[in-house]
Amino acid sequence: MAELNKNGLIYSCTCTRREIADSAVMNSEGPVYSGQCRNGLSGGYAGRPHTLRVKTECSRIESVDHLQGKVHQCVQREMGDFVLRRADGIYTYQLAVVVDDVWQGMTHIVRGMDLLHSTPRQIYLQKLLGYQTPVYLHLPLVVNEQGEKLSRQTLATPIDLASPLPQLATLRFLGQNPPDELVEGDITSFWQWAQANWQAEKIPKGNRFMSEL
Ligand SMILES: [Zn+2]
After folding, report:
1. Ligand 1 mean position, distance from CA 64 (Å)
2. Are 14 and 98 in a shared domain?
3. How many domains does the chain have?
């Protein structure tokens, strides 16, 4: 944060949720912040609880995903100046994940498609902080009939830890083809097969429906 602050890239914002909602364009995550507080807070607002936002630009962030191809986003227009630290002092996901990845020496990041629209913001922060951008691959999700990803929130059945192989066979959803006898065998052999035979180029791009299971 000190690094960003030194370069004048972060600022305090005292806008309430309501003010932001009233003044903004919407994106998939909610209202896009208009940058109201970018030029400093007026006297009456000093000392109030505030978030810290990063100044974004309209230079398009282009990322190359190993499965999805090129992803373009104009961070300022599509996402707005985003929050790095909430009013209660908690750092947000976007900043925490970028710093964590560097601390852990991550070079390759494989995660769900639902995070694809976050990646340009993370690349933007990596550039501001002088970090290297890792290689990204966003996997398709398994979704229910309503198109929602399977998660605890949607009350999806968890993996049966006592007998996980039938569910791990959903590797087939990712275009991989574990033989039937392996699915009836033991978990160590299953992972050995998966590591040796993993073919990223066979992964389909789009989400898959639970009903195809
Ligand atoms: Zn504000």
Report:
1. 32
2. yes
3. 2
| 129 has pLDDT over 80 | yes
How far does residue 13's CA lie from ligand 1's centre (Å)?
Answer: 4
Distance 100 CA to ligand 1 centre (A): 27
Residue 184 or 138, more confident: 138
Q: How far is the CA of 34 from the centre of ligand 1 (A)?
A: 8
In degrees and rounded to multiples of 5, residue 209 shows phi and psi of -85, 140
Whether 111 and 152 map to the same domain: the answer is no
Q: Are residues 66 and 158 in the same domain?
A: no
CA of 133 to the centre of ligand 1 (A): 29
Rounded to an integer, the average pLDDT of 47-73 is 86
| Torsion angle in degrees (nearest 10) through CA of 111, 154, 16, 20 | 70
* Last-in-domain residue among 139, 155, 177: 139
pLDDT digits (tens, 9 = 90+) for 6-25: 888 999 999 988 888 887 78
SS3 state at 57? coil
Give the SS3 label for residue 103.
helix
Q: How far is the CA of 146 from the centre of ligand 1 (A)?
A: 35
Residue 123 pLDDT > 80: yes
Distance 20 CA to ligand 1 centre (A): 7
pLDDT at residue 44 in the model: 67
The amino acid present at 162, given as its one-letter code, is A
Domain shared by 122 and 21, yes or no:
yes
Say whether both 195 and 184 belong to one domain: yes
